[in-house]
Design a protein that fits this description.
about 270 residues, alpha+beta, 8-stranded mixed beta sheet, 8 strands, elongated, disordered C terminus
C-alpha cells in the first residue's frame, strides 16, 4: 500500500485514548505524493448515528446531557439543519488551528439529523469573515502573523514594480537613481519581510498539533420520536480546543485549554 494511503501508528491523528470516539475511514485517506504521509483523512464519529453518513476530522468533543424539549428547534439564526455531517482532517487546517465541519443541506427538513452552525460558504458568512479581518488583530496567533507578513511583502513588491517597470512604459516618470534606490530598497525590504514570514512559517509547521484537534461539542437535542430519528447539535468547542492559536500568552506552544500535565483543562 502506498505511504500516502495510511498513517504510521505514531503519526495518525486522534490516536490518543481520549479521542477514541473518532474512527478513521481508510478509503478517504490520501496525500499528493505516494512516498509521503497522508495530508487528509476522514473520521467517523462513533456518537453519531450509524447511518450511511461518513465523517471527517477535527478534535476532542464533549457529549452533553439531553436538553429540554423546548430547545429541540434551531436555537437561533446562526444555526441550520443539515445531513451527511463529515469531519475533515487536513494537515494545513490542523497546522492553522482550523476545525472544518462539512455537511449537506437536507432534502427534507423533517428528516434532518443534525443542527449545525451556518455554512461559512454563504455570502453573509463570507462578509462576516471580511469584517473580522478588518477589525480583529490576533497578534498572538502565529498563523495570523505568517499571513500578515506575506501580505505586507506582496504590497511592498507591488510598490517596487512602479520603480522597476513603470519607467519602461512611461519614461517621463523616471527620476535619478530610481531603479537603484527606489527599486533596490523596496526589493530588499520586501524580501526581508518574506524571509521573516518564512521563518514564522517554519515555527508554525514545527509546532503543529500532531495529536489532532476535533474542535466540536456534540449534544443530543432529541432522543428520537416513534420512528427512532433524533437530532444532534454540533457547536464549536473553544474550551476543548487543543490548538495553541487561542492562547494569548504565547506564539507557539500549548493551548490555554491544556494544563501542565498535558490534559485538557475544562471549565
Amino acid at each position: 500500500m502506498p505511504r500516502n494511503k495510511c498513517f504510521p501508528p505514531s503519526h495518525e491523528p486522534f490516536r490518543s485514548s481520549s479521542q477514541n470516539f473518532l474512527t478513521i475511514q481508510p478509503q478517504h485517506t490520501s496525500g499528493p505524493f505516494s512516498f509521503l504521509n497522508p495530508t487528509r483523512a476522514a473520521y467517523k464519529h462513533t456518537f453519531l448515528p450509524d447511518d450511511k453518513f461518513a465523517s471527517f476530522n477535527n478534535e476532542p468533543s464533549i457529549v452533553k446531557p439531553n436538553v429540554p424539549d423546548e430547545e429541540q428547534a434551531i436555537s437561533g439564526k446562526h444555526e441550520q439543519l443539515a445531513s451527511n455531517v463529515e469531519f475533515k482532517w487536513r494537515s494545513r487546517d490542523n497546522r492553522k488551528g482550523r476545525h472544518t465541519l462539512v455537511f449537506d443541506p437536507p432534502s427534507d427538513p423533517s428528516n434532518a439529523r443534525y443542527i449545525t452552525p451556518n455554512s461559512t460558504s454563504s455570502l453573509r458568512e463570507a462578509g462576516k469573515g471580511f469584517v473580522r479581518m478588518a477589525t480583529q488583530y490576533p497578534y498572538w496567533d502565529i498563523s495570523y502573523l505568517v499571513a500578515t507578513m506575506f501580505t505586507l511583502g506582496s504590497v511592498v513588491w507591488v510598490i517596487n514594480a512602479f520603480f522597476a517597470w513603470l519607467p519602461l512604459v512611461r519614461p517621463s516618470t523616471n527620476f535619478h537613481n530610481e531603479l537603484l534606490v527606489g527599486g533596490g530598497i523596496t526589493a530588499f525590504i520586501g524580501a526581508t519581510i518574506f524571509e521573516i514570514g518564512s521563518v514564522l512559517l517554519m515555527f508554525e509547521a514545527v509546532n503543529e498539533n500532531r495529536a489532532g484537534c476535533f474542535g466540536w461539542a456534540l449534544e443530543t437535542v432529541l432522543e428520537g420520536n416513534e420512528k427512532g430519528s433524533g437530532k444532534f447539535r454540533l457547536r464549536p468547542d473553544k474550551n476543548g480546543c487543543a490548538h495553541h492559536h487561542t492562547n494569548k500568552g504565547n506564539i507557539v506552544g500549548k493551548s490555554d485549554s491544556i494544563d501542565d500535565s498535558g490534559a485538557l483543562a475544562r471549565s
